[in-house]
Amino acid sequence: MKIIELNQDQFSLKNIMIQFECESSKKAAELMKRLHRNGNKVQLTECSILVTFDIFELSLFVESFQTSSDKQELQNILHRHQLIWSGNNFSFDLTKKSIIYSILNITPDSFYDGAPENLTLSHILKRAESDINHGAAVLELGGKSSRPGYSDITPKEEWLRLETPLKEIRRNFPQAILAVDTDEAYVMERVLDIGVDIINDIDGFDTVDKLKVVENYHPTVVAMNNGRAGFSYADNVYEELSQFFLKKSEELSQLGLKREQICIDPGVGFFTGPSGSDSVQRINTTEILTRLGLPVMIAISRKSFMGNIFGVDVDERLFSTLMFEAKMMLEGGRILRVHDVAETKRLIDAVELYKTF
User: In what residue span(s) does the Pterin-binding domain sit (predicted)?
Assistant: First the structure.
């Protein structure tokens, strides 16, 4: 059997097109029977079949083969669509597995869980322990709110909020992978100096100072396009984000980052209109963005666009959060940045179970 992957230069987790040229019509009929689970297939001729797999379907199909040259060729195709996110102290294979990236706000004014107790060390350590126990792979600390209309603080104030919690989490949970959400070069340097693994910048590393930090430290990063600066490449969000992240990944790579160190975030909820439709459009870029071969972050937890669409307060947005997250996972999003760790773990388990059979 001849196996041909179409569009070999196009990375995908959802649309992997493979053409099978069988030796006879009988062999083609046998193959069609083996493809009973795959609805997206076309018999082009008596001996030729075109199938579009997602990464889960292709993995299961490969497993159905006994050792043979056909299986090896399919494994090679599967390997070309492997998705890794890594840093100095971690490596996640995100090809089929999603991870939880927990939000720990060290702020009194964040849109969902902002409270004075967020500034107390005992509360922070309790949250960190709980999130780790419920399945968080990464703990992200943020020292200032980035919600629409937030009150800014100085970089030094932000660092003072973060310094002790970061050091104490590292001391109490030495295996924890730590991230910091900041848009300040000064804060980036300070937290990297004490061993933080990941920097998440809502402005996508948009200044010379921040890019210099990246060049000097080579951290794993999350780069966002939040929409606040307008469009530069296209008149629609789908082309705009694709072009933005293509250019941004090239820029970061030129500073010494490996592609496996770069995660991209479509910036849902940062520039939301009264209807919330622009945020839904950004959700719908997920599959398009995965074609860049970079991990896509799902960062929609309880955001205000759900209130605009469904008329619900922040405490009532868990259900819609989980529904949108499931949709983005099926489109190839793999890193779920969330407030509700236990509930998200159940969601991931359910989606992955669904795709296993």
Answer: 98-349
CA quadruple 80, 81, 82, 87: dihedral sign: positive
Residue 100, helix vs strand vs coil: strand
**Residue reference for tokens 């990941």:** 198
| Side-chain half-sphere exposure of 57, counting CA atoms within 13 A | 20
CA angle 49, 5, 286 (to 5 degrees): 105
Q: Could you tell me whether strands 220-224 and 198-201 are parallel, antiparallel, or unpaired per DSSP bridges?
A: parallel
| Cβ–Cβ < 8 Å for 225, 242 | no
What is the CATH superfamily name and number for domain 84-354?
Answer: Dihydropteroate synthase-like (3.20.20.20)
Q: What pTM value is reported for the model?
A: 0.94
Q: Cα angle vertex 16, ends 250, 31, to 5°?
A: 160
Give yes or no for a contact between 300 and 283, defined as CB atoms under 8 angstroms apart.
yes
Other CB atoms closer than 10 Å to residue 92's CB: what's the count? Answer: 20
Boundaries of every domain in the chain: 2-80, 84-354
Residue of 267 and 275 predicted with greater confidence: 267
Q: How many residues would you count in the chain?
A: 357
pLDDT per residue over 97-141, tens digit each?
999 999 999 988 554 555 567 779 999 999 999 999 999 999 999
Measure the CA–CA gap between 36 and 142, rounded to whole angstroms. 48
CA distance 155 to 133: 32
